[in-house]
Amino acid sequence: MKSVLFTLLPFLLGVFYLIHPFAPSVQVSVFKTSGVTLETKKPSPITGADQISAYLPYLKGKRIGMVVNQTSIIGNKPSVDSLVSLGVNIVKIFGPEHGFRGNASNGTKVDDSVDAKTGIPVISLYGKNKKPSQEHLADVDLMIFDIQDVGCRFYTYINTLNHVMEACAEHGKELMILDRPNPNGFIVDGPILENHLHSGIGMHRIPITHGCTIAEFAQMINGEGWDLPKNKTCKLRIIKVANYTHDTPYTLPVMPSPNLNTQQSILLYPSTCWFEGTIISQGRGTYMPFTVLGAPALKGIYSFSFRPVSLKGMSETPLHQDTDCYGLDLRNYDTSVFRKTRQLNLQWLMELYKAYPDKARFFDASQSKQIGNFDFRSGTENLRKQIIAGKTEKEIRQSWEPGLSQYKQMRKKYLLYP
């Protein structure tokens, strides 16, 4: 019976997907030519996970380990739940930062557990283990990685990917990647990480926005040999995103982490997250993180204010807790600017440093209580020194070369999408 089910499922699921209310919508572009209005219809991206018929037969008879979190969905349902209901033998779940269900605060250690809904063991990769052990993989035939990334060096899921690839290469396990669009995939910008600033928020010699999907980044890890066993690579099987280019706008259906809770925050994140390691709050401890910037000392300089408080599952001890912060409100900032310029915003960093009264404290990581200091987040000591010295944006951007251009050229080898 199971054999018949697996034989028929790809066809049945294909039909189901076409008539299902969660089938992909269509993007419509309207333009005028010779006074006549024309419409062109572009199908929306279809994630790798949603293309069930492309990979379900390959899972037949295999013991599956899944690296997933709350963004791992098929339609509107968690992919683990969906695949279990289809008879897939998932023997282990591996959870990254924020946990399998995505409800742990940033930087919080996550322990191993058992998933209450499915009864499947959950191994944390953001606690005592950074990568699966030989014991963890002993009863796994195939690993699946299905996590939504947002395209930034300091967003830790690419580190999780690297650790999982390292373990798979060491122990001869194949890794299937169910690829997803990168919402910031149109920007490749920022200083290249300097070797001495290698850390948990910067493992790779890449700019702040790397311009890759998870599958493209996996190919880059293999090709560049980053943190892999000597003379070994990870065997990859990739289910590509359909109807996708790096310029395709993509609104995430599920927030990728507790403090990226809106599309606005996701698009601002590359340009506001490097305020961590400064005295400036990025709105952690509010329901508008990464869309506001401020500090108590800026009272009288800016009229807009917000007050960080302890929010369980988001930020339990935020910077400037229970104190009014004054600064910039970016909630209505036109993020289409990023698509036009293909650049991060440096002006906010330059402006707030210039406005801050006690400049000696601005980059004081011990005062900011953040994870890592500014140099680790920006990936270079130069940016901090350049801001202090009053360098122009043009001078700062020039200092990112030739590293940035070299990265862009290297990146081309691993792209799956135009």
UniProtKB/TrEMBL annotation:
It comes from the Bacteria. Residues 267-417 form the Peptidoglycan beta-N-acetylmuramidase NamZ C-terminal domain. Residues 64-263 form the Peptidoglycan beta-N-acetylmuramidase NamZ N-terminal domain. One of its GO terms (molecular function) is peptidoglycan beta-N-acetylmuramidase activity. This is DUF1343 domain-containing protein. It comes from Spirosoma validum. It holds the Pfam family NamZ_C. InterPro entries: NamZ, NamZ_C, NamZ_N.
